[in-house]
Design a protein that fits this description.
There is one protein chain. With 797 residues, the protein is mainly β. It is built from 14 helices and 46 strands. Strands 2, 3, 4, 7, 8, 15, 16, 34, 35, 36, 37, 38 and 40 form a 13-stranded mixed beta sheet that branches. A hairpin with a 4-residue loop joins strand 32 and strand 33. The radius of gyration is 43 Å and the shape is elongated. The two termini are 43 Å apart.
Length: 797
C-alpha cells in the first residue's frame, strides 16, 4: 500500500517553499533541543527570537507542528526572492544564556522554599542542603520556559551556593539526566519530562502498510557488558561541640583606666588653692551583629583646675563661689563599612514565610572579604565650654557684682573633626587614603589673637564675652591630605565564610566511589566495559532542627542507587540504539514527541521501541518524518508459528501472548482540529493561530496498545554476598620428622554441604566460590576441618 504524504504546510510569516526540523538524540543529555530551517517565498526580516507558527493540512485536519519554534537567524535572497530562516526551540535559542551578575551566578540555599522555616543564622554557621527541584526552577525561570514543576527531582546538594555559571541550559540538563530524566519543549513551550527508566504505558502500534521505509541506524556506541558510573557526594557527620564557654555576649565592651594623682596649686590675690586630681579615662567600644567595631568612645574626666586654671584664679581672694567641678572631654570615632549591619540579614531573626532574601531584600549575608573593609571613619572631639574658655586668653570671668561667666563642664562643644576615607582597589593592592581636618577657632593661634583683640583690655559686659566665646566655636577647615599605599600582596582573595569554616564539623570530605552494573547478553567473548560520569550526585541532606537548634541528617544520600540507574539508563539507550532501526512515516502516523512509544508487529511477534532524534522534512509535495526507533524489549507473540526477529535474552526462544491492540475509528494528529474543503491554508481565519489551533491536545493513533511489561534483550547481573557455611575434608599423611622441618601435605578437597537462599525473582546464572575467611581445627585423627565463612555468588534479576 502506498502511504499518502501529501500535505500543505502553512506559516504565519508567509507562503512555505520547503523546510524541516529535527530533535537532538536523547543519549547523554537531559534536555532535547530542536533545530531546523524554513524557506519562505518573498523577502521578509523576522526578528531574533520571534515565534514562528507552523501547521499542516492533511486528511481533513489542520495540525500545529508539535514543537514551538523561534527565529535564530534569517537570510533574504534578493535574487531568488525568498528568505531562509534558521529555527530552533526556546532552549536552543537560549542555550548560551549564563549569569551576568554575581547575584545571578548562584542559587542560594536560603532562597529554597523548602528552607523557609529556618532562621537566617543557621545558614551562616553550616551548609544546609539545597534541593534539585529549586535549582531547576531557577534555571527554568531564567530561560523563561513554562513547567509543571520539578517535584519529581529528589536530589539534595549540600552546598552553600549552587554554581550556575555553566549556563542555565547546561545546569538544568545535568540536573534532569542525573536522575535519569529527559525534558523537551512541546508546542506550548512547556517543558515535558520523561523517565529513562520506565517505558510502560500506551504504545502507538505501527502496522506494515503504514511504513514508508525502514533501515538500520548503523551508528552509536557499542553497549557494554559492564558499566561503571563515577560520582562524588558529601556525607554528614554529627558536629563536634563548639569551643565556646556559653556566656552571654554584649554588643559593647568598656575599659576604664585610672591615672596617677596630680596635685594642682593655684595662687592669687592673697589666697591659695590646692586640689589633688585623679584622672580617669573610659573607652567604650560598640560592635554590630557581625562583631565589627562601629563606634569607639573615649571619655576623659579631669577637673576644672586642670582645664581652666584662669577661671579659678580670677575668683581667688574675692570671697565668691566658683565651679570647682570635674571636667570631661569626649573623643568619638565612628567606623563605616561598605554595607552597614542593617543592610545585611540579621543573623538571629526568625524568618516568616518566604526566604531570608525575601525578608531582607536583594541583599546577601555578611561576607568578611568585602564587609570587613572600612570605607571611612570620622573622629569627633567634644570639650566642655570650660575647657574651651581655658584655651582662650580670658583673664576676667566676673566684674564685681555686675556680671560673671561660669562655663559648663559638660562636653558639648565640637572642637575637632577628622574625616578619613579609604578607597581600596583589591585587584591592584592600592589603597588611597584621604584625610580632612576641621578645628575650632578657639584652639588656633589666629583665633585666640582675634579674641584677645576683641576683649582688650577687659570684657565690657557678659554679652560681649559670650559673643566672642561663641564665635570661637566655629570650625575652620585645616586642609586635606591624600596618601597612597601599594601593598605587597594584591589580587582579590576570598576569605572563607563562617559556614565554610564550620563545614568541617558537619560535612565530611567528598567521597568518590563508583557504581557498577553488569549486563549479560551475547557471548562471553564480546565483553566490553564502559565508564560514565554522573553530573550531579545527591549529598546527604542536612537540615536544621528549630526545636533543638541543631543541625541534623534529614535523609541519607542515595547516590549509589542514582549512579546505578544512570549507568543502567545510558547503557540501555546505547543498546536500544544499536538494536533499533530508522523508520520513515507520514506526519499523522509519527508519534509527536521524544521517547514516545512505538509497537512494531511483524512475523507474528511484537517489539517495543521509543522515538529518538525525530525529524520532519517538508516541501510543496508533502511531509516525510523520520525517527530512530530505540529497541526497548520484546512485547510478545501475536500468533503461533512466528519467529523471533529482534534481540532476546540468552536462552529465550519464545515469548508469551502480546497485549491486545485497540483500534481507533477516528484517529487524529496532535494539536489539531477538523476542517473542510472551504478552509484556505493561505488565508486562515483571523483567530486561527491564537485560539482555534490547539497546542496541547494529544494524538489519537489509528491503533494503540497498553504495555505494562517488556522483556529486555539483556540480563542484569547482581553480585550478592551470601553468608554460607561449607565443610571441606582434607586428607593428609602424618610424617614423623623433626618439627623444624617443613611438613608437606597432600590434600583432597570436597564440599560436603552448601546452602544458598535468594529471592524468588532471582534466577542464578553462575556461582563463584571464594574463601574469604578460613579457620582450621586439628583433631587427633588425621582430619583437618576448615569453615568457609563467606562466599560470593553472581545472581540474575
Amino acid at each position: 500500500m502506498t502511504v499518502d504524504i501529501r500535505a500543505k504546510v502553512i506559516c504565519d510569516l508567509g507562503e512555505v517553499i520547503s523546510g524541516g526540523w529535527s530533535d537532538d538524540h536523547v543519549q547523554g543529555t537531559g534536555l532535547i533541543r530542536t533545530r531546523g530551517d524554513l524557506v519562505i517565498k518573498g523577502l521578509i526580516s523576522p526578528t531574533l527570537g520571534q515565534p514562528v507558527q507552523l501547521a499542516y493540512v492533511q486528511n481533513g485536519y489542520v495540525s500545529r507542528f508539535p514543537r514551538a519554534l523561534r527565529v535564530l537567524g534569517a537570510f533574504a535572497d534578493p535574487f531568488r526572492r525568498q528568505t531562509t530562516i534558521q529555527l530552533g526551540c526556546a532552549i536552543t535559542l537560549r542555550e548560551n544564556l549564563a549569569p551576568q551578575t554575581d547575584e545571578e551566578k548562584t542559587a542560594d540555599t536560603w532562597d529554597d522554599p523548602a528552607n523557609n522555616f529556618i532562621i537566617c543564622s543557621a545558614f551562616e554557621d553550616a551548609t544546609i542542603s539545597i534541593s534539585a527541584a529549586y535549582v531547576a526552577s531557577v534555571c527554568a525561570a531564567k530561560l523563561n520556559i513554562n513547567t509543571t514543576g520539578f517535584e519529581f527531582l529528589t536530589n539534595w546538594y549540600t552546598v552553600e551556593q549552587f554554581d550556575l555559571t555553566p549556563g542555565y541550559v547546561q545546569v538544568l540538563s545535568d540536573l534532569l539526566v542525573s536522575e535519569s530524566y529527559v525534558g523537551f519543549l512541546d508546542a506550548s513551550e512547556t517543558l515535558q519530562v520523561r523517565s529513562l527508566l520506565d517505558f510502560t504505558g500506551t504504545y502507538t502500534v505501527i502496522e506494515q502498510d503504514r511504513v514508508i521505509d525502514i533501515g538500520p541506524i548503523n551508528s552509536g556506541e557499542i553497549p557494554a557488558d559492564t558499566v561503571t558510573t563515577r560520582y562524588t557526594y558529601n556525607r554528614f557527620t554529627n558536629p563536634e561541640p563548639l569551643d565556646e564557654d556559653g556566656r552571654m555576649v554584649r554588643n559593647w565592651e568598656k575599659d576604664v583606666t585610672v591615672g596617677p594623682a596630680v596635685q594642682v596649686d593655684i595662687f592669687g590675690f592673697g589666697q591659695s588653692y590646692r586640689r589633688v586630681v585623679i584622672p580617669e579615662t573610659t573607652v567604650v567600644t560598640t560592635y554590630d551583629s557581625f562583631n565589627r567595631v562601629i563606634k569607639r568612645t573615649e571619655t576623659e574626666i579631669t577637673h576644672t583646675c586642670i582645664t581652666n586654671p584662669s577661671y579659678i584664679h580670677d575668683f581667688l581672694g574675692t570671697g565668691l563661689e566658683f565651679n570647682d567641678l570635674p571636667d570631661e572631654k569626649i573623643t568619638e570615632t565612628v567606623f563605616n563599612y561598605k554595607r552597614a549591619a542593617q543592610e545585611l540579614a540579621d543573623p538571629d531573626e526568625p524568618v516568616p514565610p518566604g526566604s531570608c532574601r525575601t525578608l531582607y531584600g536583594n541583599l546577601s549575608f555578611y561576607d568578611p572579604e568585602t564587609d570587613n573593609d572600612i570605607i571611612s571613619q570620622v573622629t569627633t572631639v567634644y570639650q566642655s565650654p570650660m575647657a574651651v574658655a581655658g584655651a582662650l586668653p580670658i583673664e576676667v570671668y566676673h566684674e564685681e557684682t555686675d556680671w560673671r561667666y561660669d562655663p559648663e563642664v559638660i562636653a558639648n562643644v565640637i572642637t575637632d573633626i577628622q574625616e578619613i576615607t579609604y578607597d581600596k582597589d583589591d585587584s591592584s593592592g592600592i589603597t588611597k587614603t584621604t584625610t580632612v581636618i576641621f578645628q575650632a577657632q578657639a584652639l588656633l593661634q589666629a583665633g585666640q589673637q582675634i579674641l584677645a583683640q576683641e576683649l582688650f583690655p577687659v570684657p565690657q559686659s557678659l554679652e560681649d564675652l559670650l559673643n566672642s566665646v561663641f564665635n570661637s566655636y566655629r570650625l575652620i577647615h585645616m586642609g586635606t591630605s591624600v596618601s597612597t599605599r601599594t601593598d605587597r600582596e594584591y589580587g582579590i582573595q576570598r576569605r572563607p565564610s563562617r559556614s565554610e569554616l564550620n563545614n568541617a564539623a558537619t560535612v565530611k570530605a567528598s567521597l568518590e566511589p563508583t557504581s557498577e552494573v553488569e549486563f549479560i547478553y551475547g557471548t562471553e567473548t564480546s565483553e566490553n566495559v564502559t565508564s560514565y560520569a554522573m553530573p550531579y550526585a545527591p549529598d546527604d541532606r542536612i537540615g536544621y532542627n528549630m526545636i533543638t537548634n541543631s543541625y541534623e541528617l534529614v535523609s541519607p544520600s542515595d547516590a549509589e542507587v542514582k549512579a546505578r540507574n544512570y549507568g543502567r539508563a545510558q547503557n540501555g539507550l546505547a543498546y536500544g540504539h544499536r538494536n533499533g532501526f530508522s523508520i520513515q512515516l507520514s506526519a499523522p502516523e509519527t508519534p509527536p514527541y521524544p521517547l514516545d512509544r512505538l509497537r512494531i508487529d511483524a512475523a507474528e511477534y511484537g517489539a517495543g521501541y521509543v522515538c529518538n532524534g525525530t525529524s520532519w522534512s517538508f516541501d510543496s509535495n508533502g511531509i516525510v518524518c523520520n525517527t530512530d526507533a530505540l529497541f526497548i524489549g520484546g512485547i510478545g507473540t501475536t500468533n503461533t508459528g512466528g519467529s523471533l526477529w529482534f534481540a532476546v535474552q540468552p536462552g529465550i526462544t519464545l515469548l508469551g501472548p502480546a497485549p491486545e491492540v485497540y483500534k481507533n475509528e477516528y484517529p487524529e494528529p496532535a494539536n489539531s482540529y477538523p476542517v473542510d474543503e472551504s478552509f484556505d491554508p493561505l488565508n486562515p481565519p483571523e483567530d486561527f493561530w491564537d485560539e482555534l489551533l490547539p497546542t496541547d491536545s494529544p494524538a489519537v493513533p489509528a491503533a494503540e496498545s497498553i504495555i505494562v511489561d517488556l522483556v529486555p534483550a539483556w540480563k542484569e547481573a547482581i553480585n550478592e554476598l551470601l553468608a554460607v557455611r561449607s565443610t571441606i575434608n582434607v586428607t593428609r599423611g602424618i610424617i614423623n620428622i623433626p618439627t623444624v622441618q617443613p611438613v608437606v601435605l597432600t590434600t583432597r578437597t570436597t564440599i560436603s554441604a552448601l546452602e544458598l537462599s535468594a529471592r524468588n525473582s532471582v534466577l542464578p546464572i553462575k556461582i563463584k566460590l571464594s574463601v574469604q575467611e578460613a579457620s582450621a581445627a586439628i583433631r587427633e585423627e588425621p582430619v583437618e576441618l576448615l569453615n568457609i565463612l563467606s562466599t560470593g555468588a553472581y545472581l540474575l534479576m
